[in-house]
């Protein structure tokens, strides 16, 4: 009767190595699955708040070639003292790393029972788009700077793609 126990130290090493890799991969995948379930629940049932990005760190991990970032947020909610929370966020298909810069203000939702569970809703929109687009771009200003500012507002989701296209055409028509 053959026994399936490794016979040599090299076989034992290889078995332990592959076993360890399998356990680590299972742990990583499980961690992301749990984070996704918590985020979905918090987005659905959480309380609204606001946060500022204090730190942004690329974890080096990718899912479908999209990077995963770890953010340190300062979270503020009415009636509570501000506090810090860490969040892992995978960029969406049309987002760039610049869309989550340090100092950026975000709309977030919190778990009622565990405020350390934070889900990012999106960028805070502090004024109507017209205030940024029309008043923020002088008619005699530099069109290259105006286009860069406009692209930045699109990247930070302050304006829609349609608003971007309309204002871009307006700026280019002044040339």
Give a written overview of the molecule.
- The structure is a single chain.
- With 175 residues, this protein is of the alpha+beta class.
- 40% of the residues lie in helices and 27% in strands.
- The protein contains four helices and five strands; from the N terminus they run H-E-E-E-E-E-H-H-H.
- The protein has helices at 9-45, 129-135, 143-155, 161-173, and strands at residues 47-63, 66-76, 83-90, 105-110, 118-123.
- A five-stranded antiparallel β-sheet has the order 3-2-1-4-5.
- Helix 3 packs antiparallel against helix 4.
- The longest helix has 37 residues, at 9-45.
- It starts with 8 loop residues before the first helix and ends with a helix.
- The model is unreliable at 127-140 (pLDDT under 50).
Output the helix-strand order: HEEEEEHHH
Taken from the alpha-carbon principal axes, the silhouette is extended
Label the structural class: alpha+beta
The amount of helix comes to 40-55%
Largest sheet: 5 strands, antiparallel
Number of helices: 4
Mean pLDDT: 80
Low-confidence stretches: 127-140
**Structural Rg:** 23 Å
Distance, first to last CA? 86 Å
Strand residue percentage: 25-35%
Order of strands side by side in the largest beta sheet?
Answer: 3-2-1-4-5
Number of strands: 5
In short:
The protein is an alpha+beta fold and 175 residues long. The chain is 40% helix and 27% strand.
């Amino acid at each position: 009767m053959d026994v399936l126990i490794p016979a040599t130290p090299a076989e034992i090493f290889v078995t332990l190595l592959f076993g360890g890799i399998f356990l680590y991969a299972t742990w990583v995948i499980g961690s992301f699955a749990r984070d996704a379930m918590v985020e979905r629940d918090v987005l659905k049932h959480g309380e609204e708040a606001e946060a500022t990005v204090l730190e942004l760190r690329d974890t080096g991990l990718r899912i479908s070639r999209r990077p995963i970032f770890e953010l340190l947020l300062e979270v503020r909610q009415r009636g509570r003292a501000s506090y810090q929370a860490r969040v892992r966020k995978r960029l969406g298909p049309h987002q760039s790393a610049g869309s989550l810069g340090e100092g950026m203000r975000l709309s977030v939702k919190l778990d009622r029972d565990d405020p350390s569970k934070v889900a990012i809703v999106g960028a805070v929109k502090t004024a109507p788009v017209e205030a940024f687009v029309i008043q923020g771009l002088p008619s005699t200003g530099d069109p290259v700077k105006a286009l860069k500012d406009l692209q930045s507002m699109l990247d930070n989701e302050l304006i829609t793609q349609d608003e971007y296209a309309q204002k871009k055409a307006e700026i280019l028509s002044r040339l």
